[in-house]
Amino acid sequence: MPQVSSHALFGRRFARHLARLTRVYWTSPDALKGGLLLALTISLELCTVYGNVRLSVAQRRIFDAFEGKQMAALYGAFGVFIGLALAFVLVSTFRIYTRQTLEIRWRHWLTDHYLKQWITSQAYYQIELHRKATDNPDQRIAEDVRNYVASALGLSLSLLSALATLVSFAGVLWSLSGHWEYDYHGSHIHIPGLMMWVAIVYALVTSWLTHRVGRRLVPIQFDRERFEADFRFALVHFRENVELVALSRGEDGEQRTAISRFHNVIRNWMQLIGAQRDLMLLTTGIGQANSLVPLLIAAPGYFAGNLTLGSVIQTTIAYAQVSNALVWFVNAYQEIAQWRASIERLFTFTEEIDSTCADLQLAQGLRVERRQDGALRLSHVFLSRPDGQVLVEDVTAAINPGDRVALLGPSGAGKRTLLRAIAGLWRFGRGQIEMPEEARSTFLWDRPYLPMGTLRAALSYPAIEGNFADDKIREILQLLDLNAFAERLGDSEQWEQRLSGGEQQRLALTRLLLHEPDWIFLDGATSSLDDEAVPGVYALLRERLPRAAIVSIADRAAVAQCHERQWTLVPHGAASTLQVD
Prior knowledge:
Elements (H helix, E strand, L loop, with lengths): L11 H15 L4 H38 L2 H50 L2 H9 L5 H40 L4 E4 L2 E4 L3 H21 L2 H24 L1 H7 L2 H53 L5 H18 L1 H4 L1 H30 L3 E6 L4 E9 L5 E10 L4 E5 L6 H9 L5 E8 L4 E4 L8 E2 H6 L9 H10 L12 E2 L1 H4 L2 H15 L3 E5 L10 H11 L4 E5 L3 H4 L4 E8 L2 E6 L1
Parallel strand pairs: 3-7, 6-12, 6-13, 8-11, 11-12
Antiparallel strand pairs: 1-2, 4-5, 4-7, 9-10, 13-14
């Protein structure tokens, strides 16, 4: 199972990963609209900083009016403050709105990108078959993409705000504390911009301490996402197979498995809250102590009559703004750690997809090609296991349109592997498989895939719902003795959970007849039907699809008798050879 790297929180590796992930959206066709939204968000962010500066000035005037007991000035200062506050609220609200609009556009594009990489190139299958090293790709696409985008925007905009705040309030703080003098054993001490230097030193010390205490959060956050996803997947897998578990009396085993996975979540959670506790103790202590610093330093000047109460208040506000800007790293550390983990998980996922696809493209062994010839041809095909052991050797054969071929042989001889190779899914081996260029193929296994949704959508899959007329669907349902489903096309169910094995297989055959493929490959597609029903199914296929070639793995005599030709895989030692009749 991959682990998060032990590299520094920020470094070349992190920068390279971040740059590649960021380019996906900002070089996309949607980048222009995203750029306009980003520019507007940045403008509103800077406006809020400017609003904070003006509000601090208004607060100073309010307290100076209090100290001078000037009622008219107080009312005027209150009016200015209320006007500024209303404008600040309006700008802040739209700042959040534009940021969230950009966030969902960015997430939409990045999610589409990963779905395309993972699904379109069949990486979802090849990763599991070849590597089995990437845990929970669904969670990475759903959760890590969301966390990455939200934190990328949140952290970058908060950093921009911190820098703008630092620039805006640094001059104010320097000016306010620029002429402060202190008596020390009869000597007058004057440090220009004293409070500014205090804020800088305080930020440097606290940032170093925060990194020392909080750096172990990154690997903990990485593992947290994995353990949570593993636990959730186990529960979903159990729910999808409740009948099989019940029939196997496997409740105790399922419970043990779920508890074992949840114990990983608990152990990781204890590590996480321990690390967060230590970091929170430090950051909370820093925040509380920091709030007293400007008051302690300004008190002697105020008591000596060198500062007004308004000046002290404005100094306190300015120091808080500058200090918070300088300790941005401290306040954002936990989110940075989680963001770093999400980036690592997304990038390792990308690397796994890229490596798998590159390996497949560079593979010089088994090749599946499209030809103008109308026949399916296998030329000196050798199939191997992933460890290199030969499973099927030197297969040379051909199937013409309209042929009916039964594939025979004992269990483990490589029958299903041969069909996988024809489908282009099994790349271990060498030789060449030629398929007709315009051929449309359908592969049906003993447990068909029925997606969630309406029955109409399940029967239309992989075409979109509505691609076939309801009257045609009902006609074929009746031919396969599924009259009870003719009026349920609009019903939405988890069909794999609601239907018997025989019903599922008949629905899959209905879907096959709707799509009318040229090449049909069946492995146990009628295994849940009675022997007496099998000839009728194959007769229906012959009647409705007379030009289609059918290749069936024939584990039952009832299936073998429905084909004119036979291919038999005969084991010889560890490998099998093909005999063609």
